[in-house]
């Protein structure tokens, strides 16, 4: 998996023009894997996400049409879309972040801000919270301009008895490993505790890596958990076999 710096460079390379960024909020789709997924396109009411020629195409944005409304964020299964408003103030930008944990932060809260690798980069203030029925909420936070392309996640603050900051217990919300099949980290760890020591066993027990993306997101996480449990390196653990077709094809193609 690519680290924060590599991803940051890819994101900066696809930024809209300086003129467009001075006009107001814009969406950034940090999706660089070709997988069968297009809800960003189907949800956009302004036609800002360009039409896909193939369901596996990488999404592209027409920034002349993008308003930064965030509707595409709320439906993105990979939580890979962020809205940036560089016009918020001279010192800070506003970042709209998709958030699926509990508790949901409130306006005025000071939360921990993290980069794509999970490193703490800054404490930030929540400026707005927009709640959706699908529980993918959009949280606006104000961040220093120099960090606007680093900060990509938040965690709600709680105080322990000794006064130190601690993240909320994960009992308040499940950590989803496989979004295609809705498999939680708890399910993966339970199967490992039951004696499953290979990816194939986990796959058969939970359907992990059997969704449309074929494990592009969940497989590295499953391998990491198996590596910790078995003491084997990730290279030693066998990945599952994939059967054709690797990507969705039209029925007509199969009869040609």
Automatic annotation (TrEMBL):
GO molecular function: iron-sulfur cluster binding; metal ion binding
Keyword Transferase: no
Occurrences of domain 4Fe-4S ferredoxin-type (ranges): 57-86
InterPro entries linked to this entry: 4Fe4S_Fe-S-bd, 4Fe4S_Fe_S_CS, BFD-like_2Fe2S-bd_dom, BFD-like_2Fe2S-bd_dom_sf
Pfam families in the record: Fer2_BFD, Fer4
PROSITE patterns registered for this protein in UniProt: 4FE4S_FER_1, 4FE4S_FER_2
Keywords carried by this UniProt record: Iron, Iron-sulfur, Metal-binding
Protein name: 4Fe-4S binding domain-containing protein
Source organism: Dethiosulfatibacter aminovorans DSM 17477
Organism taxonomic ancestry: Bacteria, Bacillati, Bacillota, Tissierellia, Dethiosulfatibacter
């Amino acid at each position: 998996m690519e680290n924060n710096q590599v991803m940051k460079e890819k994101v900066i390379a696809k930024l809209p023009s300086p003129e467009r960024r001075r006009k107001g909020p814009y969406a950034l789709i940090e999706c660089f894997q070709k997988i069968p997924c297009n809800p960003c396109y189907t949800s956009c009411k302004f036609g800002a996400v360009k039409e896909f020629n193939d369901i596996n195409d990488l999404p592209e944005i027409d920034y002349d049409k993008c308003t930064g409304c965030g509707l595409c964020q709320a439906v993105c299964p990979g939580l890979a879309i962020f809205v940036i408003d560089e016009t918020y103030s001279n010192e800070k930008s506003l970042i709209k972040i998709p958030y699926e944990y509990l508790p949901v932060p409130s306006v005025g809260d000071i939360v921990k801000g993290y980069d794509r690798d999970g490193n703490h980069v800054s404490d930030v203030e929540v400026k707005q919270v927009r709640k959706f029925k699908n529980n993918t909420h959009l949280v606006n936070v104000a961040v220093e301009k120099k960090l606007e392309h680093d900060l990509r996640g938040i965690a709600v603050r709680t105080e322990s008895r000794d006064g130190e900051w601690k993240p909320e217990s994960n009992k308040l919300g499940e950590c989803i490993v496989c979004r295609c099949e809705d498999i939680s980290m708890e399910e993966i760890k339970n199967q490992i505790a039951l004696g499953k020591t290979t990816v194939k066993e986990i796959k058969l027990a939970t359907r992990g890596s059997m969704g449309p993306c074929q494990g592009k997101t969940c497989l590295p996480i499953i391998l990491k958990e198996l590596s910790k449990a078995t003491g084997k390196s990730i290279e030693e653990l066998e990945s599952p076999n994939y059967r054709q077709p690797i990507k969705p094809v039209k029925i007509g193609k199969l009869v040609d």
